[in-house]
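Re: weekly structure request thread

Next one in the queue (417 aa):
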Amino acid sequence: MKLGKYSIGIGDRFAHQGNAQLAAILKAKQKGVDITPVWNKSYREHQTIKTEPASTRIEADNAVKISGWKDAYFVDADHVGLSNVDYFIGSSDFFTLDVADFIGKSATEDKIKSFINQHKKYIGRIAIPNLTEEIEITEEQIESIAHKFLYAIEQAGIIYRHILTKKQQGTFVVEVSMDETDEPQTPIELLFILAAIAQEGIPAQTIAPKFTGRFNKGVDYIGDINQFSKEFEQDVAVINFAIKEFSLPANLKLSVHSGSDKFSLYGPIRKILQKFDAGVHLKTAGTTWLEELIGLAQAGGDGLIFAKEIYRSAYFRYDELCTPYATVININREELPAPDKVDKWDSSDFVNTLRHDQANKLYDINFRQLLHVAYKIAAEMGERYLNALKKHEKTIAQNVTENIYERHIKAVFIGAD
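Done, posted below.
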């Protein structure tokens, strides 16, 4: 199985928006841009919502059938480890191997020495095509990188080989994820991480490194855009070099996790992709859940009441909801609007406060982030919430499609009309 040059991870908490999500990708296809859809849902999300991975597969298969989609599509076991990968084996054909927790844990000294010896030829100054500056590598750097990352990649190899005991080689896509850690990986570190991936025999088609800055859930990038652009360009160049140097899959590309709504980065990303004729995997994750809330509020009546009820519960369950996502949200709790105030809002007030339109004076980054992590409340409502999605399907679907196509796909993959 081969992942397309451009792909997009379309998370869908409640597995009801597959048709609307695919409609956005079909619009891109009509513009001559092929994007591979990847429906992704993590173990944590399944546990929170009390769903099984089979539900994501059913959603994807049904959306493909209804739309007449003829190209490849995937279902991603998102952020899995050895402890939970079996949960996804039957329904997934894309596995994001998350080894961030193992970064910094050292491999054995024998393995580290062997890794250094195998890569001594890179000591000195090496020129990577399309990078203006040569990279200088010392033996001490290789040793430090091996101590920091080699064990983590060994764990990725263990997970990959475990999957191979259940699924035939070549029948699934592998991504290695190292983004949920404290420090960004440098281009030199990425080079030797890729060397280790090749050494483990992992046919990775995407890799998700940690970039400089904050990639908070569902809101724009916080950090130095110029520094990000420099890192992103260096990483693309390093990947192109590593593909040939280490015989990695020719379609290996960067994966941008929590990439949803990083509007200030989309222009630089697109420019670099064009410069290198490179691909990218963009994960939009939980923005579909927020578009469901926007659609409910926009519908008015009971839909608006429903959205307000969810916010009220989220406000008073702040610590419970936010703690699991503490590293990827940044909420000023004191600036959250009081539920009694929100109860007086009309549809446009709620929609404009939640929708990610930074030009709108009502947009509230704190309000949006809290509701982003509040999907647990909707899950607890069970059929009440699902019935509301069905009742207001048309309004919700319009928002889901427009969000993915207008705000994400056009900006990264198509450009301005």
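The longest strand covers residues 36-42. The chain has a mean pLDDT of 95.
Next request, please.
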